[in-house]
Amino acid sequence: MNIFALGEGSYSVDASKKFIPFDPQTDNAKERPGSLFIHVNPFLVKTGNDLILMDTGLGYKDTRDELFLHQHIRNVGFEPEEVTLVLMSHLHYDHSGGLVVERNGKLVPSLPEATHVIQKGEWEFAISGKSSSYHQEIFEALNDRVNINIVEGSGELKPGINYELSGGHCPFHQVFWIEDKSGKCFFGGDELPEPEQLIRKFIAKYDYDGRKAMQLREEYGKKAAAEGWTCLFYHSKSIAIGTVTYNDEHFNVLPV
Asked: Is 230 exposed, middle or buried (0-12, 13-18, 19+ CB in 10 A)?
């Protein structure tokens, strides 16, 4: 198994829920009052049978009108057309923007050859347009144009790939494990978004159920430490791919 972090950089987001690029070296956080600052890391995992994308980033383009996501996939030695599975933890915009790309004024699927794995309740809520955290036009552009594997609850997607309905960050959030003879990796999406939240036992106000999300982080962290999982941290600024240790009721995360 080979794992690649497809880092898309840092962004600020305020009450308008617009994501604005933020360079800590040149930009001043004080000039963006009321903003949260996040880092965005989709992941690419190569197994013996699949090329797997785990969440898709914001869908922003470079100066050549190319998706950062597509370019980053190429930078690690693959073509976007080679992606066979897109595993979506949830469909908030900062995780789902890269599902589509604008071509000739229209949104089209960015990975049309891949099977997209989405929780049933999450898909139904996202496409309903009831929340500004979800961009309905993305899901309308996908509908009937890609193979969407709607899953429900928890289970085995295929040998070596399992999913679990977690429901902390949003009601139908899911997490994934990928395992082969080389080991097991865990993608927690926004249930385990960055090492700092695990280390500090953080309760986030932006979670649907903050206490449940905190408890899930602790549960996943302890299992990761005990079983030697490689953890993928979608919103980490420093350690995107790491292993967890747990000693004397304290967590630590080491880069891989």
From this structure: buried
Any domain includes 150: yes
Distance, CA of 128 to CA of 139 (rounded, Å): 9
Domain annotation covers residue 206: no
Query: How many Å separate Cα 31 from the centre of its chain?
Result: 28
Assign 3 a pLDDT band (cuts: 50, 70, 90): very high
CATH number for the domain harbouring residue 39: 3.60.15.10
Phi/psi at 254 (5° precision): -115, 140
Q: 10 Å Cβ neighbour count for 105? A: 5
Give the domain extent around 119. Answer: 2-190
In a domain, 118, yes or no: yes
Report yes or no on 96 lying in a domain.
Answer: yes
Distance (Å, whole) CA 182 – CA 137: 39
Q: In the predicted model, is pLDDT for residue 151 greater than 90?
A: yes
What total of structural domains would you count in the chain?
Answer: 1
CA 80 to the chain's CA centroid: 17
Look up residue 120 and give its DSSP letter. H
Alpha carbon distance 211, 107 (integer Å): 37
Q: What is the mean pLDDT of residues 77-96?
A: 98
Residue 220 vs residues 67, 77, 227: alpha-carbon distances, Å = 32, 31, 10
What is the number of other CB atoms lying within 10 angstroms of the CB of residue 154? 13
Run of H or E residues at 156? strand 155-158
